[in-house]
Write a structure and sequence with these properties.
single chain, alpha/beta, Rossmann fold, 2 domains, 4-stranded mixed sheet, 12 helices, globular, binds xanthosine-5'-monophosphate, GMP biosynthesis, purine biosynthesis, GMP synthase [glutamine-hydrolyzing], glutamine amidotransferase, nucleotide-binding
Length: 318
Amino acid sequence: SWTPEHFVDGMVASLQRTIGETDQVILGLSGGVDSSVAALLLHRAIGPRLHGIFVNNGLLRKEEFESVLHSYQGLGLNVTGVDAAQEFYAALAGISDPELKRKAIGRTFIEVFDREAHKVEGAAWLAQGTIYPDVIESVSVKGPAVTIKSHHNVGGLPEHMKLKVVEPLRMLFKDEVREVGATLGLPENILHRHPFPGPGLGIRILGDVTPEKVDLLQRADAVFIDALRQHGLYDKVWQAGSMLLPVQSVGVMGDERTYERVVALRAVTSVDGMTADWAHLPYEFLAEVSNKIINQVRGINRVVYDISSKPPATIEWE
Ligand code: XMP
C-alpha cells in the first residue's frame, strides 16, 4: 500500500538515477505546497545541485516573501530570493483589464526567471511541482490563467535553454503531496497554506495596480488572515482573501468626513475550487475584522463580505 515514506524512498532513488551525479537542476518556488514539496524531494536526492528560484513579484501577501524565504533557508534548501517587485509594478502600470494584467505578470515572471536561471552554470534540468490533477485536466481557472499557470511552470524555458523536465509529483493527488511534505518536514505554514493565485494581489486589486494599493490591500488582508488563524477558522475554509475595490465611499472619522476605499472580504468552502460556497463565518468574527481594518488601515473606511457562491460567481473577482 502507498505510504509517504515509501514514496519518498522510491522517488529519491529514482531522481538520483535520472539526474545523475553532476547535473544541476532549476526549480521555481512559489511558496505553495507543490513546488515546496518538489524542492524537498530533490534536495534530499541531489542536495545543493537543486537551485531554487523564488521570485517576489510584489503581489504576495504581507511579509510573505521574507517569511517563506526564511522557511526555505531553514530547511537547508539552496534558494535564491529575487526581489523583482518594481519590475512587476512597472509592467502593470496603467493596466486595468484582468486578462492583460495576467499576461503582464506572466511575461515579467518569465523574464525574471529566465535571467536567474541563466546564472546557474551547468543547468540541465527544469523541475516542476506539477501534480496529477494538473496533468489530467486543464486547470479550472479562467482562460488566460492557464497560460499563467504554464508560465509559472515556465513552459518556454526548456526549449530556450534546452532543459529537460523533471516532475516528481506527477502521480500524486494534493492530499498525498501534503503527506509527503509532512514526512519531509515541511513546516505547517507552508503545508496547510490556502491556495493563492499565481498573479497574486494583482487580480485582487480591481482596476490598475500601484504599489500604494498593494500596500493598502496587504495590510487589510493581514488583519483578516491573522484573525482567521487566531479564531481557529483558517483551516476551516478552503481559501480566503481580500479584494480592493475601485470605488470610494463616504464615511466619518471623528468630526471629519472621509472619502476612502472599500475592501471586500472573501472566504469560501470547497473541495477542489471548481465549485465553492461562501463561508458562513460568525457575525461576531466579521464585526471584529471589519472594525480592526477600518481602525488600523488608513485609506479604508468600509468593509463588505462577499456572499456569492461559485457558480455563478468565481472565487477571485478578476
Ligand atoms: P476562480 O476565481 O476561477 O478560481 O473561481 C479558482 C481557483 O483558481 C485560482 N486562480 C488562479 N490561480 N492563476 C493561478 O495560478 C490564476 O490566474 C488564477 N485565477 C484564479 C483561485 O485562487 C482559486 O483557487
